[in-house]
């Protein structure tokens, strides 16, 4: 059975609706999204596999989810390091950064050096609003994510992938296949090209909204904020 | 070993500091507080003991924590009902209420009737800023909480208890002993009078802040947002 997905335009509309008629604040949504990501990392890469996690954050909401995830990971006992080269001036992101600074979580400028000193990477660079080309300084980061043998968990989309069509046909990102992907609220069409471990997170979407946008809310277990959902051809 | 507690004034100062120098928004703190409460309810009263949960919400932040907890409980599979007689006009509480209404969670006016149709009660009426007397319409609610044989989980304080001195010496609330108590961030002095199951929640306090306010951050396990901490004379 094919997995139902939400295209880029529909995902943007859903996001807007969550923050307007559904009355969620961006603070709230980002806290819950980042919490989901942290739980997926805990599942894919438990503390016993190494505590060091490098979180690569892009300039927008995907980066914000990464900042929140990093904070939760700290409290689980991980040692996060943040690469956040294009810091947003938005007040929310500044606050999320401050919360990490208060935990003495280091922010680093040199991704190449940082990747040599971590056990796991969180790719929170680009999300469902990405299209077009990868801007500086991220091409070298995507290249490193593509080349590394370390496990990578991507937030909502493997960065550089087209939301609808998946990986670029050639060049940068064309052979980037993260270890895990956390689809927030609903999987995007790119999951049809994904062959790693796939999780859905964001346990706050009402049944009515899921119906309106025609996606399935998976069966979460217990108090989990994520659920592993196989992609095409996979069995759990 | 005595448990370290945070007096009413110190708790208010901590709350202010979290939202100023620590850069948390009330939205964020309330989301995490409510999440903690929902996890404690799941622990004390798993779904197998009955899905119906009546959440009694007061007019302030304690009530807001209850609204958030109710939403998470809905997603875990509970059937929450909300008693929220003094709705705040504050925009945040209105949004939290809307999020529940979108899930078709009922808001009821008659607590006495509602208590006859539930399996568990969450007391989110008064928190650490409570002092003085219980105002209308809450005296009858406190009386019902005191009289019921149903399990009750209180948020931060058993409502009507003095934050420092515990239960009133006589009259309303003097024999109210909830089944469980979720202390948010740090236990208040009233825990020295509490004999039920005690949890600490709010896994976002930095080690520096805990040191400054002289309380212990308990050892949370895994991804849990709560941890059970024995009170005086208890062993786990």
TrEMBL record, chains A, B:
A molecular function GO annotation: nucleotide binding
One Pfam assignment: YjeF_N
Enzyme Commission number, as recorded: 5.1.99.6
Entry GO CC: mitochondrion
Chief location category: cytoplasm
Record has Lyase as a keyword: no
Cofactor binding note of this UniProt entry: Binds 1 potassium ion per subunit.
Residues the record lists as binding (6S)-NADPHX: 61-65, 127-133, 156
Catalytic activity, reaction form: (6R)-NADHX = (6S)-NADHX; (6R)-NADPHX = (6S)-NADPHX
Cofactor: K(+)
InterPro entries per UniProt: YjeF_N_dom, YjeF_N_dom_sf, YJEFN_prot_NAXE-like
Binding site for K(+): 62, 123, 159
Transmembrane portions of the chain: none
Xref: PANTHER family: NAD(P)H-HYDRATE EPIMERASE
Function comment: Catalyzes the epimerization of the S- and R-forms of NAD(P)HX, a damaged form of NAD(P)H that is a result of enzymatic or heat-dependent hydration. This is a prerequisite for the S-specific NAD(P)H-hydrate dehydratase to allow the repair of both epimers of NAD(P)HX.
Family: Belongs to the NnrE/AIBP family.
UniProt protein name: NAD(P)H-hydrate epimerase
Lineage: Eukaryota, Fungi, Dikarya, Ascomycota, Pezizomycotina
């Amino acid at each position: 059975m094919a997995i139902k997905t939400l295209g880029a335009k529909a995902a943007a509309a859903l996001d807007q609706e969550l923050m307007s008629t559904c009355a969620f604040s961006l603070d709230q949504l980002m806290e819950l999204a980042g919490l989901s990501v942290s739980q997926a990392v805990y599942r894919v890469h438990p503390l016993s596999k190494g505590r060091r996690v490098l979180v690569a954050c892009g300039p927008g909401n995907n980066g914000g989810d990464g900042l929140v995830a990093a904070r939760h990971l700290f409290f689980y006992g991980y040692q996060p390091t943040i690469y956040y080269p294009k810091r947003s001036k938005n007040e929310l992101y500044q606050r999320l950064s401050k919360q990490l600074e208060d935990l003495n979580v280091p922010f680093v400028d040199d991704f190449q050096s940082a990747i040599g000193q971590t056990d796991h990477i969180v790719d929170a660079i680009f999300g469902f609003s990405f299209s077009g080309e990868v801007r500086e300084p991220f091409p070298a980061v995507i290249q490193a994510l593509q080349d590394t043998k370390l496990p990578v968990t991507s937030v909502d989309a493997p960065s550089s992938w087209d939301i609808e069509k998946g990986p670029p046909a050639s060049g940068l990102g064309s052979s980037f296949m993260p270890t895990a992907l956390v689809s927030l609220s609903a999987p995007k069409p790119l999951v049809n090209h994904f062959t790693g471990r796939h999780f859905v997170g964001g346990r706050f979407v009402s049944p009515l909204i899921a119906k309106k946008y025609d996606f399935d809310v998976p069966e979460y277990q217990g108090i989990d904020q994520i659920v592993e959902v196989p992609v095409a051809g996979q069995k759990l």
